[in-house]
Design brief:
The protein is mainly beta. It has 1 helix and 21 strands. The protein is globular and about 75 Å long.
Length: 324
């Protein structure tokens, strides 16, 4: 199946206009909301450094066609708040490196959010501004090995060299956080970037709309907090993807949970809060679609570090003090 998808993607890019879903999926989205909604930048009172790494459809192989690392993603962000008397700004940077078959998407963005303190909760508006780069590794194509009247060892419209292009990219969102729940709406690639390059390379990035939410429920007379969450995505209102699940957190130290991605996977979540502001999580996607016959599943790791950064005045000079 994925072989067919890769072949169709290559043909579409070089024979005409390719209008493609480009955003990767993550099972631990609830820990890294700012990566798809810039309004969530600067939530809380600390600076946060986050890394997510995902191997989609690990060890994919089908009918003699195999790719050991065809769909790997690195997702990194650094963000924090700038406090004023009442309101605040959230500022950050976000980097995404996504390998999908013969394509690679590298995206770097500056993030800014305005955070309005309400009577209860905080309402935020945010924007990402940055650059999107798409690379097609034509030099990694495998030529057909055969001799007949129906196949050729090369296609003249598909380059056998690496080609790439860049474009300005913009995302925006709104986010509301309450002591016991949150909700957000965002859109990536608002300007629908068109990336062009040599050898008829033409790639258009489809807009993706995200709707997310979750809440905390403290089970009475226990140290357990139940945290249901959901993420709904639509790609230009043509296709949809729905994640829904919950995790239970014990004494603010450990958590475990399950989720379901409709028509795709059952997800298992595990994690813990370490000392000195460190958090680590792991997820495994048990595939429920037909792709399960070609892959062992999808693996994902999550690491976050939260810390304070305080500027103190001393003889008209400033220095940083890290409080762990």
């Amino acid at each position: 199946m994925k072989k067919l998808v890769l072949c169709l993607s290559v043909v579409a890019v070089f024979t005409g206009h390719c209008y493609s879903q480009i955003d990767p999926q993550f099972s631990q989205y609830m820990f890294h909301t700012s990566s798809f909604n810039p309004a969530a930048v600067g939530e809380g009172d600390m600076i946060q450094v986050v890394y997510q790494g995902r191997s989609q459809w690990t060890n994919f192989a089908s009918k003699g066609f195999s790719l050991k690392s065809p769909f790997n993603t690195d997702n990194v962000s650094i963000n924090g708040p700038i406090k004023f008397k009442k309101d605040a700004l959230g500022v950050g940077v976000h980097f995404l490196g996504d390998n999908f078959g013969l394509f690679k998407n590298t995206n770097f963005q500056l993030q800014l959010a305005y955070k309005k303190q309400l009577e209860v909760g905080v309402l935020s508006f945010g924007v990402d501004l940055g650059n999107a780069n798409i690379i097609f590794s034509g030099d990694s194509l495998s030529k057909y090995k055969g001799d007949d009247d129906y196949h050729k060892d090369a296609d003249p419209i598909v380059p056998l060299v690496s080609v790439s292009g860049n474009s300005f990219d913009m995302n925006a969102g709104v986010f509301y956080s309450h002591p016991v729940f949150y909700a957000g709406l965002s859109c990536s690639h608002i300007n629908s970037p068109t990336i062009t390059g040599a050898s008829n390379f033409y790639f258009r990035m489809a807009r993706t709309l995200y709707l997310t939410g979750g809440f905390n429920y403290h089970i009475p007379d226990t140290k357990i907090i139940l945290k249901p969450s959901t993420l709904i995505k639509t790609f230009d209102f043509v296709t949809y993807q729905v994640d829904i699940g919950a995790r239970a957190e014990l004494d603010n130290k450990f958590w475990g949970g399950m989720a379901y991605r409709v028509d795709d996977a059952v997800i298992f979540l595990f994690g813990l809060n370490l000392a000195s502001g460190m958090t680590a999580g792991f997820s495994y996607d048990l595939i429920t679609s037909k792709i399960r016959t070609a892959s062992i599943g999808s693996l994902e790791v999550f690491i976050a570090y939260n810390f304070d950064f305080v500027l103190k005045t001393r003889t008209s000079k400033y220095k940083s003090v890290r409080l762990l």
